[in-house]
Amino acid sequence: MSVTSNQIRCYELSPGAPAQGTYEVAAGSTLGFTAQSSISHPGTLQFYMAKVPSGQTASTWDGSGNVWFKIFEQGPTITAGGLTWPSQGKSQVTVGIPKSLPSGEYLFRVEHIALHSAGSAGGAQFYISCAQINVTVSACAISTSLSTAGLMISRAVVAARQALSCRFRELIKRLTLES
Description:
Layout: E1 22-26, E2 30-34, E3 43-51, E4 68-74, E5 77-79, E6 82-84, E7 92-96, E8 104-114, E9 125-136, H1 149-178
Parallel strand pairs: 1-9
Antiparallel strand pairs: 2-7, 3-4, 3-8, 5-6, 8-9
């Protein structure tokens, strides 16, 4: 597969065909892919996500544009004995969805770059798959993206209050369910 091809985004067996469905996942949960056979070549493993633009859906958007962000990268383990690749031989790979991710629809992409033939131009092999997901955020999720020190301190106080309030609500729910 050429790195200049649109197929490098989310390899499609039938380009233009509608996707199977959009899966709902909570921010902070673990998500992954299962291969039909194990990852048999040495190489790097990455996970990427792209937020679906407003007015579009994950099942129809093609992932175009400078919108992808990496959430995980796994390179080699280097020892005196050489390199080993943690993903090699695995049939399932997983990653945690960032807890701070805003809710909404995303494309979720796994990429394994096989390096066994990478000694020549165009020799690296890309194994890519995507899923359509709708990320949900807990009512107790707290955003901490402020920049100045004064605001960070005030935000920390607000966050602590929100966390206590959230824990109190969760305790009330549990007590109500146990009654």
